């Protein structure tokens, strides 16, 4: 959010400046269903790990090349298991390789969904904040102080942008 957002100082609020990137009502039952679906994901993926930043740094960070390398190694294990020492656990490697691929697919879909949620949240926030500025301006013209109380620094923030 731009820290130099200034209220309209003219005699009338600039209602035309209100944007409306998103106009949706999310019914409570839909929100509950979404939260339920997220809980289902948590339940089905109950093996997921959480690491500290230090632990995360100690792990390999694999990209497309790493995925291809693992897939090729799995192909070799399947086609010619005799190439490996007896102590090598082929089943565990195969399970890890398959799960790695599956988690990659899930992760890619979740990343895309997460980005859409973040982008939409920013758009709706922009819409709401722009409209809130009009409310603020109307309140100021009506000499109402509700918007100032409990918003420390907002008056300064709005005044700081008045030079733009």
- The oligomerization state is single chain
Largest sheet: none
User: What percent strand?
Assistant: under 5%
Give helix and strand order, one letter per element, not per position: HHHHH
The structure class reads mainly alpha
The portion of residues assigned to helices is 55-70%
Mean pLDDT: 85
Overall radius of gyration: 26 Å
Number of strands: 0
Note poorly predicted spans.
Answer: none
Shape: elongated
* Helical segment count: 5
Taking the alpha carbons of the first and last residues, their distance comes to 15 Å
Describe this structure in words.
By secondary structure, the protein is an all-alpha fold. It is built from five helices and no strands. The chain has helices spanning 28-44, 53-58, 64-79, 90-141, 154-160. The longest helix has 52 residues, at 90-141. The two termini are 15 Å apart.
